Amino acid sequence: xxxxxxxxxxxxxxxxxxxxxxxxxxxxxxxxxxxxxxxxxxxxxxxxxxxxxxxxxxxxxxxxxxxxxxxxxxxxxxxxxxxxxxxxxxxxxxxxxxxxxxxxxxxxxxxxxxxxxxxxxxxxxxxxxxxxxxxxxxxxxxxxxxxxxxxxxxxxxxxxxxxxxxxxxxxxxxxxxxxxxxxxxxxxxxxxxxxxxxxxxxxxxxxxxxxxxxxxxxxxxxxxxxxx
Length: 228
Prior knowledge:
single chain, mainly alpha, 7 helices, two-stranded antiparallel sheet, two-stranded antiparallel ribbon
């Protein structure tokens, strides 16, 4: 179409995915990352904390064991939530998996690595201690790993929806689809019989001419016409 403005460009290639593929998992991971990074600072306001049970108190243990994996989870979740590139989305998924694993094993490695301590759960009852361990570290990390692995599985597989998205139709300024492939054309009044065109070749389309029997006998190779 002459003079029309294309408002949507199809993006081909195996690395193109729809943004919705990692949107839900990415959003949930962002929320979990925010929780993991902020709960040690706001939890003392609700009597739900590890020592020191003072709000907005910074310690090296909190920085390495809670803030760091929480921030990495947020970054990975944002990559999953916003990216249309398969490699970028997978990077976000692996970041969240690594952050979740650190939530789980970080406390055990903090002492040998000299990263500080997470503190002790401020709880008199055993049930509350378990809830603190789960919501601050072990349960939170396991959930982050699960969602990150689930997102990795979704974005690593090239589905039918990915192919449809990558080959979607162009549209002009009015939203009218613009064909990008062969367009059948019928004979006109001035076209001699037997010479009517059968298609119009788009400039970006690759057309291969197949060899006939005579070409095979002559040993001629395939001829490929590429119009720029």
